[in-house]
Amino acid sequence: MFKNLEMFQASYAMARHSGARQAVTAANMANADTPGYRARTLGSFAESYSADMDSGLRTTRAQHLTSSALTGTSSVQISDAEAAPNGNSVSLEQEMVNSVEIQREHNRALAIYKHSLDVLRLSIGRK
Protein backbone atom coordinates (compact mmCIF):
# COMPACT_ATOMS: atom_id res chain seq x y z
CA MET A 1 0.00 0.00 0.00
CA PHE A 2 2.74 2.47 0.93
CA LYS A 3 4.83 1.80 -2.16
CA ASN A 4 2.18 3.35 -4.39
CA LEU A 5 2.50 6.77 -2.77
CA GLU A 6 5.17 8.96 -4.34
CA MET A 7 6.29 10.47 -1.04
CA PHE A 8 7.07 7.02 0.34
CA GLN A 9 8.85 6.07 -2.88
CA ALA A 10 10.98 9.20 -2.74
CA SER A 11 11.93 8.74 0.92
CA TYR A 12 12.72 5.06 0.30
CA ALA A 13 14.89 5.98 -2.69
CA MET A 14 16.64 8.66 -0.63
CA ALA A 15 17.41 6.23 2.21
CA ARG A 16 18.59 3.59 -0.24
CA HIS A 17 20.82 6.09 -2.03
CA SER A 18 22.40 7.23 1.24
CA GLY A 19 23.10 3.58 2.07
CA ALA A 20 24.88 3.15 -1.25
CA ARG A 21 26.89 6.34 -0.66
CA GLN A 22 27.85 5.11 2.81
CA ALA A 23 29.09 1.82 1.33
CA VAL A 24 31.30 3.71 -1.15
CA THR A 25 32.66 5.93 1.64
CA ALA A 26 33.34 2.89 3.85
CA ALA A 27 35.22 1.20 1.00
CA ASN A 28 37.31 4.34 0.54
CA MET A 29 38.17 4.45 4.24
CA ALA A 30 39.02 0.75 4.27
CA ASN A 31 41.44 1.27 1.39
CA ALA A 32 43.04 4.45 2.74
CA ASP A 33 46.47 2.77 2.88
CA THR A 34 46.19 0.67 -0.28
CA PRO A 35 48.79 1.78 -2.84
CA GLY A 36 47.28 2.86 -6.13
CA TYR A 37 43.70 2.95 -4.82
CA ARG A 38 41.66 5.82 -6.23
CA ALA A 39 38.87 7.27 -4.08
CA ARG A 40 35.37 6.74 -5.44
CA THR A 41 32.36 9.01 -5.10
CA LEU A 42 28.65 8.71 -5.57
CA GLY A 43 26.77 11.95 -6.17
CA SER A 44 24.18 13.25 -3.75
CA PHE A 45 20.56 12.21 -4.04
CA ALA A 46 19.56 15.70 -5.19
CA GLU A 47 22.01 15.49 -8.10
CA SER A 48 20.84 12.06 -9.22
CA TYR A 49 17.17 12.96 -8.69
CA SER A 50 17.42 16.18 -10.70
CA ALA A 51 19.25 14.33 -13.47
CA ASP A 52 16.41 11.81 -13.52
CA MET A 53 13.76 14.52 -13.69
CA ASP A 54 15.58 16.18 -16.59
CA SER A 55 15.42 12.94 -18.57
CA GLY A 56 11.61 13.06 -18.57
CA LEU A 57 11.26 9.41 -17.54
CA ARG A 58 8.80 8.54 -14.80
CA THR A 59 7.65 5.23 -13.42
CA THR A 60 3.99 4.84 -12.54
CA ARG A 61 3.72 1.05 -12.47
CA ALA A 62 5.97 -1.77 -11.34
CA GLN A 63 6.15 -3.04 -14.93
CA HIS A 64 7.71 0.18 -16.24
CA LEU A 65 11.43 0.57 -16.69
CA THR A 66 12.94 2.15 -13.61
CA SER A 67 15.29 5.08 -13.51
CA SER A 68 18.61 5.28 -11.68
CA ALA A 69 17.43 7.73 -9.01
CA LEU A 70 14.51 5.59 -7.90
CA THR A 71 16.45 2.36 -7.85
CA GLY A 72 19.54 3.78 -6.17
CA THR A 73 21.89 2.49 -8.85
CA SER A 74 23.67 5.72 -9.74
CA SER A 75 27.10 5.17 -11.17
CA VAL A 76 30.12 5.31 -8.91
CA GLN A 77 32.74 7.72 -10.19
CA ILE A 78 36.44 7.86 -9.47
CA SER A 79 37.36 11.01 -7.58
CA ASP A 80 39.74 13.46 -9.18
CA ALA A 81 41.48 14.20 -5.87
CA GLU A 82 45.24 14.58 -5.82
CA ALA A 83 47.03 11.30 -5.19
CA ALA A 84 49.71 10.67 -2.59
CA PRO A 85 53.16 9.47 -3.69
CA ASN A 86 51.97 5.85 -3.46
CA GLY A 87 49.08 6.59 -5.85
CA ASN A 88 46.34 6.56 -3.21
CA SER A 89 43.88 9.46 -3.43
CA VAL A 90 41.81 8.80 -0.28
CA SER A 91 41.61 11.66 2.21
CA LEU A 92 40.35 10.38 5.55
CA GLU A 93 39.29 13.88 6.56
CA GLN A 94 37.17 14.26 3.42
CA GLU A 95 35.67 10.80 3.90
CA MET A 96 34.67 11.70 7.47
CA VAL A 97 32.96 14.87 6.21
CA ASN A 98 31.21 12.80 3.52
CA SER A 99 30.10 10.30 6.15
CA VAL A 100 28.46 13.02 8.26
CA GLU A 101 26.72 14.44 5.17
CA ILE A 102 25.44 10.97 4.29
CA GLN A 103 24.16 10.44 7.82
CA ARG A 104 22.23 13.69 7.59
CA GLU A 105 20.78 12.65 4.23
CA HIS A 106 19.67 9.32 5.69
CA ASN A 107 18.14 10.98 8.76
CA ARG A 108 16.31 13.40 6.45
CA ALA A 109 14.88 10.47 4.49
CA LEU A 110 13.67 8.81 7.69
CA ALA A 111 12.11 12.08 8.89
CA ILE A 112 10.26 12.50 5.59
CA TYR A 113 9.00 8.93 5.80
CA LYS A 114 7.87 9.35 9.43
CA HIS A 115 6.14 12.65 8.73
CA SER A 116 4.38 11.20 5.67
CA LEU A 117 3.23 8.24 7.73
CA ASP A 118 1.89 10.59 10.42
CA VAL A 119 -0.02 12.60 7.79
CA LEU A 120 -1.45 9.38 6.34
CA ARG A 121 -2.54 8.19 9.78
CA LEU A 122 -4.17 11.53 10.54
CA SER A 123 -6.03 11.48 7.23
CA ILE A 124 -7.62 8.12 8.03
CA GLY A 125 -8.45 9.19 11.57
CA ARG A 126 -5.83 7.27 13.57
CA LYS A 127 -3.39 8.76 16.02
UniProtKB/TrEMBL annotation:
Tell me the keywords, alphabetical order. Answer: Cell projection, Cilium, Flagellum
Classification via InterPro entries = Flag_bb_rod_N
Listed under GO cellular component are:
bacterial-type flagellum basal body
Instruction: Supply the Pfam families for this chain.
Output: Flg_bb_rod (PF00460)
Q: Where in the cell is it found?
A: Bacterial flagellum basal body
From what superkingdom does this record's organism come? Bacteria
Q: What is this protein called?
A: Flagellar basal body rod protein FlgB
